[in-house]
């Protein structure tokens, strides 16, 4: 069954509030409206256990206090072995990639990344689970002035966060 982006629920896990906000803004631009956030892996795990909310995708930073993204991925895989999980990292070395791959991470995105790169990763992962963009909505719809301005703001925010 194909689902609309507006029906997808995403959990963003990052200890940097600006990164969480930027990720949420990019997802909103894709038509994803149901987004939860957590400051670290422990908070994400508590949310998943306590809320009972169905989450379709986790977007998680690798390095965080209390519980890393890799540790959260291990925890999630024990309960939700097929839940799509995108790891965000500044560390894309061979050992890190191998460790996450062994836990069946859905995708990696390396910091710093552009909003377009992030959108492409999210769409690729969601396509695998049968999600689709809203009718008439295109990811590359940056011709409109408002979208162009939002992308410029996103890029500037990324530069400030990851520079």
What is the terminal separation in angstroms?
41 Å
CATH topology: Rossmann fold
Q: Can you give the mean pLDDT?
A: 82
**Could you list the spans in which at least 5 consecutive residues all have pLDDT below 50?**
134-146
Q: Could you give a quick summary of the protein structure above?
A:
The protein has 163 residues and is of the alpha/beta class. The protein has six helices and seven strands. The protein has one domain: 3-Layer(aba) Sandwich (Rossmann fold), CATH 3.40.50.2300.
Q: How would you characterize the overall build of this protein?
A:
The chain is an alpha/beta fold and 163 residues long. The protein has one domain: Response regulator (Rossmann fold). Helix content is 47%, strand content 17%. The protein is built from six helices and seven strands, in the order E-E-H-E-H-E-H-E-H-E-H-E-H. The chain has helices at 17-29, 41-51, 69-79, 94-102, 115-128, 145-162; strands at 3-4, 9-13, 34-38, 57-61, 85-89, 107-110, 131-132. Helix 4 (94-102) links the parallel strand 5 and strand 6.
Structural descriptors:
Rossmann fold; 47% helix; five-stranded parallel beta sheet; single chain; 163 residues; two-stranded parallel ribbon; alpha/beta
Q: What is the topological layout?
A:
Blueprint (H helix, E strand, L loop, with lengths): L2 E2 L4 E5 L3 H13 L4 E5 L2 H11 L5 E5 L7 H11 L5 E5 L4 H9 L4 E4 L4 H14 L2 E2 L12 H18 L1
Parallel strand pairs: 1-7, 2-3, 2-4, 4-5, 5-6
Helix pairs in contact: 1-6, 2-3
């Amino acid at each position: 069954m194909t689902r609309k982006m507006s029906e997808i629920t995403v959990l963003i896990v990052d200890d940097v509030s600006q990164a969480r906000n930027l990720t949420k803004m990019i997802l909103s631009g894709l038509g994803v409206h149901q987004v939860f956030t957590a400051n670290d892996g422990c908070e994400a795990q508590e949310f998943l256990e306590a809320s009972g909310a169905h989450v379709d995708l986790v977007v998680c930073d690798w390095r965080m206090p209390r519980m890393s993204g890799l540790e959260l991925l291990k925890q999630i895989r024990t309960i939700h072995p097929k839940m799509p999980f995108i790891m965000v990292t500044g560390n894309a070395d061979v050992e890190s990639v191998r460790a996450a791959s062994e836990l069946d991470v859905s995708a990696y995105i390396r910091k710093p990344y552009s909003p377009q790169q992030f959108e492409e990763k999210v769409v690729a992962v969601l396509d695998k689970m049968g999600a689709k963009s809203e009718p008439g909505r295109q990811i590359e719809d940056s011709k409109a002035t408002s979208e162009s301005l939002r992308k410029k703001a996103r890029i500037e925010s990324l530069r400030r966060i990851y520079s």
